[in-house]
Amino acid sequence: MTELLPLNPTNADPNNGQPILHTPGFVDAHIHPDKTSWGTPWLSRQTAHSLGDFIVNDLRTQLAFQTTVEERALALMKQAVMNGTMAMRAHVDIAPQIGLRNVHGVRAAAEQLAAYLDVQIVAFPQFGLLSNPGTLELMEASLAEGADLVGGIDPLSLDGNLAGHLDAVFGLAGKYGRDLDIHLHDGGQGGLSQIRTIAERTVAEGMQGRVTIGHGFALCEGSQAELGATLDAMATAGMWMATCALGADPVPALDLLEKHGVRVALGSDGVRDAWSPFGSGSMMDRAHLLGYRTGAMTDTELERCFRIATAAGAELVGSAAVAGYSGPGCADRLEFAAHSIPQLVVDRPSPLKVVRAGQAVAL
């Protein structure tokens, strides 16, 4: 994993003598750019009391946008690039209600920024996989039309069929040689049981290291009796957890996950969409929130939050630009006016400069 390099005291801006800290770029390991309202007039949200309410609001909002998926996704992606994101894993909705337009739109936006941003697209059945007839067929079609990974969502609480859901997503992943990333919001023993089943299936299918659990709220409940056994099963399967440090949503105990050998990446989730008015497109902000939500205090704890937002994410998505960071002068780097990584995480400044392939980025 990429080592975070300390500030070289001799590396100063010749214009004003400020210390310049060089770092690797960020990786947004869980984001939904197809849903964003970025670059459009203010979007007023509807109250939601359940996952079902959010999904209804989400579909209604998407169908009402006057701008295209490509336009909105591109606006958000540019914002992310200028704030230092060099790679992202984009979860993109697939459903009969919208067809494959979201995949096409996000892929088109990604192609415009290919020199600056590496984008993985996850085919994501937001409105249900088996419970929304026609989605599974579109999921398969999307893998030939711009999607890179197979996604899943709450096999029990949304689809009501754990075995069937896993048969479907692991079947697609195996048939097309794709990795798998499953949203799992379910908490408690039910959520942990599903994760252990997914871990067992991961090993059985020979997909160790290629399956991610997004959100994984059950993994954030330290009092659950089966938590340790579940984390051990994930570690055996090489499974990742992607967390987003959102609002009132639970966050993982990072020490505990490290102890059990479960790797963690960080993402923005939804940015200014029907699910939330919040989000800035900045992974610096997100690293700050992870530190704040997990009670980071020491330099080591703050540096870990930064590492999760950079090197860990690069390992998950396979970003050579971020993983290959080698210090000041590296062709792919960020430059900040700061003395240290802990200061960055607390102060959350925008980068002075984003450099890709040796050239400063200007969009």
How does this model look, in words?
This protein is an alpha/beta fold. Helix 6 runs parallel beside helix 7, helix 9 packs across helix 12 (341-347) and helix 10 packs across helix 12 (341-347). The two termini are 30 Å apart. Residues 1-10 have low confidence and may be disordered. The strands form two sheets. The chain has an eight-stranded parallel beta sheet with strand order 2-3-4-5-6-7-8-9. Strands 1-10-11-12 form a four-stranded antiparallel beta sheet, with no helix packed on it. It is 38% helix and 17% strand.
Give the tags.
12 helices, globular, 363 residues, 38% helix
Helix-strand layout with pairing:
Elements: E1 20-23, E2 26-31, H1 51-64, H2 69-82, E3 85-93, H3 101-112, E4 118-124, H4 135-142, E5 149-153, H5 162-176, E6 180-184, H6 188-204, E7 211-215, H7 227-237, E8 240-243, H8 254-260, E9 263-266, H9 283-293, H10 299-317, H11 320-323, E10 333-337, H12 341-347, E11 353-356, E12 359-360
Parallel strand pairs: 2-3, 3-4, 4-5, 5-6, 6-7, 7-8, 8-9
Antiparallel strand pairs: 1-10, 10-11, 11-12
Largest sheet: 8 strands, parallel
Distance from first to last alpha carbon:
30 Å
| Mean pLDDT over all positions | 94
The percent range for helix content is 25-40%
Beta-strand proportion: 15-25%
> What is the CA-based Rg, rounded?
20 Å
Tell me the total number of β-strands.
12
Task: Give me a quick take on this structure.
With 363 residues, this protein is of the alpha/beta class. Helices cover 38% and strands 17% of the residues.
